[in-house]
Design a protein that fits this description.
This protein has 198 residues and is mostly helical. It has one domain. Helices cover 72% and strands 5% of the residues. The protein is built from 5 helices and 4 strands. The strands form 2 sheets. The protein has a two-stranded antiparallel ribbon with strand order 1-4. Strands 2-3 form a two-stranded antiparallel sheet. The radius of gyration is 28 Å and the shape is elongated. This is DUF4149 domain-containing protein.
Length: 198
């Protein structure tokens, strides 16, 4: 009879204590990777939507504004090349630490290489041609040479397209890099399971 009463009131499991602790190496690696990607992408967004329109709207001479924007873009492209190399290294470390699968590593590497290639192409191919046009025609944006102005506008659109391409890829990297913190914890000792009513 007493055994029947025990079955009618099953034992309750006491909530277990915290069983996992943070593993700081993968957390620091993931944080650094995400921080660099966010800074890279954020600087591109700020340059495209704030700095460039602000310079053209503030400076009276459009040619001076073009030179200033071109100088900032070339500086940012140079920094982006170094950031791309650093992010490729952190991606390799993530793979070696088993934080990324082979498929995720290949995807992330491909996106980073595309972003870096776009920055290098803008720095090596597009921006120097725009600078050469500004040197040969100091009053390019205020003059009457429509042919040269058309070439400059085409190069400008190409450069902004490369910047937009990097922004899209950077945003996708941020999206793909979002992880829950519990992925980067290591188990501690297993606690003893105690029951009420035993």
């Amino acid at each position: 009879m007493s055994e029947l009463k025990r079955n009618m009131h099953p034992a309750k499991v006491v909530p277990l204590p915290e069983t996992r602790r943070v593993s700081w190496v993968p957390v620091a690696l993931e944080f650094t990777h995400q921080l660099v990607v966010a800074c890279w992408t954020g600087s591109l967004v700020g340059l495209s939507f704030v700095v460039v329109p602000g310079l053209y709207g503030t400076l009276r001479d459009p040619n001076e504004a073009a030179w200033s924007c071109l100088d900032l873009i070339m500086r940012l492209d140079f920094i982006a090349g170094g950031a791309g190399a650093f992010l490729l290294l952190t991606t390799l470390l993530m793979y070696l630490l088993a934080l990324r699968t082979s498929r995720a590593t290949l995807t992330q590497t491909g996106v980073l290489m595309a972003m870096t290639a776009a920055a290098v192409a803008n720095h090596v191919l597009v921006a120097p041609k725009m600078a050469a046009l500004l040197r040969t025609a100091p009053d390019l944006l205020t003059g009457t040479d429509l042919v040269t102005r058309g070439r400059f506008d085409d190069l400008s659109r190409m450069g902004m397209g490369l910047l937009a391409f990097q922004i899209v890829l950077g945003a996708s990297l941020l999206f793909l890099g979002v992880r829950r913190w519990y992925r980067y914890v290591t188990p501690t000792r297993t606690p003893r399971l105690s029951l009420i009513g035993e």
